[in-house]
User: Fold Terminase small subunit from Planococcus wigleyi.
Amino acid sequence: MVKFTEKQQRFIDEYLVDLNATQAAIRAGYSERTASAQASRLLTNVNIRARIEELKKTRADRLNLDAYWVLKRLMDISDRAMQAEPVMEWDHSEQQLVPSGEYQFDSSGANRSTELIGKHLGMFKETVKHEGEVNVTFIDDIGGGKDGP
Assistant:
């Protein structure tokens, strides 16, 4: 097993708290001024990254969390958010809340959970369109340059 410095191990432990690398670096004792750069450097360390993934997997296994569990929860949230809830209003004559005849539902909760399910299933492909010219300079053996096409 790879040995980590005390600060690296604290960073790993702190990162697992909230997955916020900059804050984890600060809590681990790195300077606030350089925490973002330090966090980026730490997360590119293959051994640190592997240890974080190993601990995340162990935690998920211990809690019996997997893609099925997440998708089931998202489906439940979407279904619940789509249920029409009656809008209640105060009836002065009856001195109680009564249905107004209108209904509401949590469209943002339904949309977000459905979007996450769709992303998991690969239904939304992000595409990037590049336009413009690319100029390339070729350097010959003598050290001079000539413009490419």
Q: What stands out?
A: Helices lie at 6-18, 21-27, 35-44, 46-62, 67-81, 107-120. The first helix runs from residue 6 to 18. The mean pLDDT is 87.
